[in-house]
């Protein structure tokens, strides 16, 4: 039996909601506002609909899911923008309800047309990043701009960052900084962190670590430690001041930024917290805090210790067994690492096993989104293309699926088959007129020069010389 408490005004819609919820085995507690209301606006019922939708995240049974969907569909059909937004995002993304991108998009568009700000932000981000929608910077700017005009701090933050960097939208630093500052002035700690990260990396603005830190400290005063976690992580890996980095990361973790404990465990494992045994002795304590904070990747770090023999005997089979056990317990990060290791091997104690990678994807695929399952499957197929004659058809298959294109998938392709990734980069650069060499998948001097130029043009790395062979950079250039 599932229950939900609904606060609802009187009226015919409330009667329909009660009937639908009861039909699904849900109990309804109504608290009526003073005075009768013959008509109800979308705003009046929005809190009720949100509470109804929230039950979808509480392990509902099939009857409860059908009932909640019925309530949302009834309200959406009646023109309720909040119902259109809630149901639309579920259908677009395949959350709990089966995915139906067309229906989800139509509902979100209807809500956005009715000036529903959250729907405008969702569509803006979807078109900006290709989140179950085709990448369309013009539409992204339109939706985010409308939401920003309506006062959405999130829209100001996302749009502001894009205008500052020019990553997806035409660069307009002055407007971008203005939007960011508006969000910060309105108390948006995430805007402080987003702008701080730009100053930390020098992406679109001068590189000013102290300005970044001041913004992160401002967010920390509001109880958000994620900026300090990013700053402490960068400081730790720079090895400039290990003690200070550790102190900052501890502060971030205590503020609820669980990724800080993961950074500390990672640094401890590789000797970045005081060096050698002193550093490695700190791993267990930070690993326990990372686990308590729900950081799934701690299982991956523990497997890496086993793989490389850090404070234990190196063993490829034990590494795979650790990852498999964590995946069986529902750890998606461990499942993904298992698939990648089986697909690629590690050139030490784990051999490439594509059949094993496919079996692992079949076994643990439910831990991933539909999109990620297809991306992993294609990356395994891509790993088998071993000559230029095989690159062309594989590149055509990938190019025909723009809905799958993002930097993560590009990085997976670069890991699975670097030659295929460079073949596709050569194709792209030749089409753009910035490369005139052979299209063969080899990282020739001419290819590397063109890739470095493209990296600098798109500002994807602080070091576009040495880093252009990194899968993360290749992937971002390839499919981002």
UniProtKB/TrEMBL annotation:
Keywords: Signal. The keyword Protein biosynthesis does not apply. InterPro entries: Sel1-like, Sel1_AlgK, TPR-like_helical_dom_sf. It holds the Pfam family Sel1. Residues 1-38 form the signal peptide. PANTHER family: ERAD-ASSOCIATED E3 UBIQUITIN-PROTEIN LIGASE COMPONENT HRD3, SEL-1-LIKE PROTEIN. This is TPR repeat.
């Amino acid at each position: 039996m599932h229950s939900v408490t609904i606060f609802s005004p009187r009226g015919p819609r409330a009667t329909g909601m009660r009937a639908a919820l009861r039909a699904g085995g849900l109990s309804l507690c109504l608290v009526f506002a003073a005075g009768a209301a013959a008509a109800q606006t979308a705003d009046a019922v929005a809190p009720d609909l949100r509470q109804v939708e929230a039950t979808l995240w509480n392990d509902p049974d099939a009857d409860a899911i059908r009932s909640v969907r019925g309530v949302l569909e009834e309200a959406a059909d009646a023109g309720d923008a909040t119902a259109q937004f809630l149901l639309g995002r579920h259908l677009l993304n395949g959350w709990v309800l089966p995915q139906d991108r067309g229906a989800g998009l139509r509902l979100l568009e209807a809500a956005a047309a009715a000036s529903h700000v959250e729907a405008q932000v969702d569509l803006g981000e979807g078109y900006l990043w290709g989140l179950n929608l085709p990448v369309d910077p013009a539409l992204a700017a339109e939706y985010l701009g409308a939401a920003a005009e309506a006062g959405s701090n999130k829209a100001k933050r996302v749009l502001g960052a894009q205008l500052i960097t020019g990553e997806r939208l035409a660069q307009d630093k002055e407007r971008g900084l203005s939007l960011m500052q508006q969000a910060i002035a309105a108390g948006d700690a995430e805007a402080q962190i987003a702008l701080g990260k730009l100053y930390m990396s020098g992406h679109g603005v001068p590189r000013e670590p102290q300005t970044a830190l001041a913004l992160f400290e401002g967010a920390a005063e509001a109880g958000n430690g994620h900026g300090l976690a990013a700053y402490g992580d960068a400081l730790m890996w720079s090895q400039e001041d290990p003690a200070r980095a550790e102190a900052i990361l501890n502060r971030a973790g205590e503020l609820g930024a669980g990724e800080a404990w993961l950074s500390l465990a990672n640094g401890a494992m590789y000797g970045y917290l005081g060096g050698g045994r002193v550093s490695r002795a700190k791993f267990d304590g930070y690993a326990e805090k990372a686990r308590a904070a729900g950081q799934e990747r701690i299982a991956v770090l523990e497997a890496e210790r086993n793989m490389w023999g850090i404070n234990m005997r190196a063993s490829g089979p034990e590494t795979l067994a650790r990852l498999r056990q964590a995946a069986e317990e529902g750890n998606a990060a461990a499942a993904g690492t298992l698939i990648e290791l089986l697909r690629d091997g590690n050139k030490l104690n784990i051999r490439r096993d594509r059949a094993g990678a496919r079996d692992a994807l079949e076994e643990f695929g439910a831990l991933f989104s539909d999109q990620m399952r297809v991306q992993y499957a294609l990356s395994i197929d891509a790993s088998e293309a071993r000559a230029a004659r095989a690159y062309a058809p594989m590149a055509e298959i990938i190019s025909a699926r723009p809905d799958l294109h993002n930097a993560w998938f590009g990085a997976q392709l670069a890991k699975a088959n670097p030659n295929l990734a460079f073949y596709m980069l050569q194709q792209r650069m030749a089409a753009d007129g910035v490369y005139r060499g052979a299209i063969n998948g080899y990282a020739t001097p001419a290819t590397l020069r063109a890739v470095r130029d493209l990296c600098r043009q798109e500002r994807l790395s602080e070091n576009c010389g040495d880093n252009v062979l990194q899968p993360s950079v290749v992937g971002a250039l390839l499919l981002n």
